[in-house]
Each structure stands twice: as structure tokens, then as C-alpha cells.
Design brief:
The chain is of the alpha+beta class. The protein has one domain: Ribosomal Protein S5, domain 2. The protein has a six-stranded mixed sheet. A hairpin with a 2-residue loop joins strand 1 and strand 2. Helix 1 packs parallel to helix 2. The longest helix has about 45 residues. It starts with a strand and ends with a helix.
Length: about 140
């Protein structure tokens, strides 16, 4: 789980992200961690195309939750499930948690490239082992 935080006064705002092969789960919250309004989004069919989103559960921050879900789906080009739980105003929450999404995205890029490097190394060692068995 990747995390980023911003302290504002005595309140710590956090984004916790789980990046999967076909989806991304992002929890936006003020400590302690709590589930909030849940929104889901799929990326557009073509780059820059409109996404599809919906609020699954919750009655507060409907616009901010959908916007964050759509943004994360577009950024990662994966289905996105977002939870937003905060006491900020909706506009302020959207600005602050968008910044956190950018911060956690940078960590995700690093983790994703590291994972790809590991996969390449695993494949090369696997191929070498496989070739060795063929020659026996």
C-alpha cells in the first residue's frame, strides 16, 4: 500500500493507494482511517476520452468523490475505486486530495517501474533455466 499525507494544523490528511494490474483502490481520509463516500470509475475507451463514474455509497462529497475516481482512473488507465472521508468543505477536499493523489502517484510510478524491472529479471532467469533443461 502506497501512502502520502499532508498535515494541516493538527489534522493529517492521507491518501492510501493499492495499485493492482487492472484497478486502483484509493482511500482519502483524515486520520484515523475510515471509509467514506465510495465512487467507482472506468477510464475512457480512448486516451483523453470521457470516463464513466458512479457513486456507490454515501451522501456527502458526491462530486468530489466522483471527480477523484475519474481522475485516478485517467491517471492510471485502470478502473478506480475511491473512498473519501473528511470534514473539509467539498471544494477544499477536492483540491487537497487531488494534491495527495499526485503525491501518491509519484510513488506508484516508482513502484510500478521497480516491479517491471523485477519481472524482466525474473523472465530472463526463467528463460535461462528453461534453456538449461532443454539441453539435458
Amino acid at each position: 500500500m502506497l501512502e502520502a499525507s499532508i498535515d494541516r494544523g493538527d489534522v493529517r490528511h492521507k491518501a492510501s493507494m493499492l495499485l493492482m494490474d487492472n484497478a486502483v483502490l484509493v482511500l482519502f481520509y483524515e486520520e484515523p482511517m475510515r471509509i467514506g463516500t465510495l465512487a467507482i470509475s472506468t477510464p475512457g475507451l480512448r486516451e483523453g476520452g470521457p470516463s464513466t463514474s458512479s457513486v456507490l455509497l454515501g451522501g456527502k462529497y458526491l462530486i468530489a468523490a466522483r471527480a477523484l475516481a475519474e481522475r485516478s482512473a485517467a491517471l492510471f488507465n485502470r478502473m478506480s475505486l475511491v473512498s473519501l472521508n473528511t470534514r473539509l468543505s467539498e471544494g477544499e477536499a477536492l483540491r487537497l486530495y487531488s494534491q495527495l493523489l499526485d503525491k501518491v502517484r509519484q510513488q506508484g510510478k516508482t513502484a510500478d517501474s521497480s516491479r517491471k524491472e523485477l519481472e524482466v529479471k525474473d523472465e530472463s532467469s526463467h528463460d535461462g533455466q528453461h534453456r538449461g533443461h532443454q539441453g539435458e
